[in-house]
Amino acid sequence: MLGAVSDWLERLYPSKTWGELDDELAMVSGVSPDDVMALADEFAEELKGAVIYREGGEEDMCDYVYILCQGREPCALQMRYGDVKVPEEFGEDDRIHELYLRVSLSSIAPMAVVQQVNVTLSQVEGQWVIREELAAGVYDAPLLKRFQRLVALLPAYDLTHLDMGEISTPPPDFDHGNYRENYGSDPHQANYLFFRNPSTMIVTSVL
User: Fold this and answer.
1) What backbone phi and psi angles, to 5 degrees, belong to 3?
2) Start-end of H helices in the chain
3) Which of these, 50, 74, 82, 124, is most buried using a 10 Å CB contact count?
4) Is residue 198 packed enough to be buried (19+ CB in 10 Å), middle (13-18) or exposed (0-12)?
5) Per-position pLDDT tens, the chain of length 207
């Protein structure tokens, strides 16, 4: 796995400099939108859970598929993305805690990484607030069986599964450019292959 990571980093960043991506290679090497959607459908069928697909944003080099593993529909992320509204019967004392697997599918290399996501929905000063907390890997027991089944599906799409813990360090001998200036730390290997934001962060949304 680490050999594959090093190989792709050197091919995608021939100058070994943050931000200097080989765009021509990146455009033909990542997971296609069709494969992302096909995987989302397969996850829903094989893992028996709600699946939420999100296209990557400007800060991303990947697309995301969330699989609800603990909780029930309508789930908090469906509410956050506007697919459904907060049920009218929810009161100010209600609090929901959910567990997800988040699959990041690189749009620049044939690779995927999976993280545990803890999501809470609660009411604060009359407003519904969703807190999404990303973990550095997958740890909680309710997620492990689905995680193993998920990883087993990836080779059929010629995708390499990467362990987040193994790509949470800066790549050696790389020039990290202005990343520290913009994000406050040196970029990890995950930030070169999947997303620019730190891999463990908390995102708070007000509905």
Assistant:
1) -65, -40
2) 2-12, 23-29, 33-47, 76-80, 141-153, 179-183, 189-193
3) 50
4) middle
5) 668 999 999 999 999 999 999 999 999 999 999 999 999 999 999 999 899 999 998 889 999 999 999 998 889 999 988 778 888 788 777 888 999 999 999 999 999 999 999 999 998 888 899 999 999 999 998 899 999 999 999 999 999 999 999 999 999 999 999 999 988 899 999 999 999 998 888 999 998
Judging by beta carbons within 10 Å of its beta carbon (0-12, 13-18, 19+), is residue 190 exposed, middle or buried? Answer: buried
Amino acid at 72: R
pTM over 0.90, yes/no: yes
C-beta separation of 163 from 136 below 8 A: no
Residue 184: phi and psi, rounded to 5, are: 90, 0
Report helix, strand or coil for 100.
strand
List the beta strands (DSSP E) in the chain: 51-54, 62-70, 96-106, 111-124, 127-134, 160-162, 202-206
80 Cβ contact list (under 8 Å, min separation 6): 130, 132, 205, 207
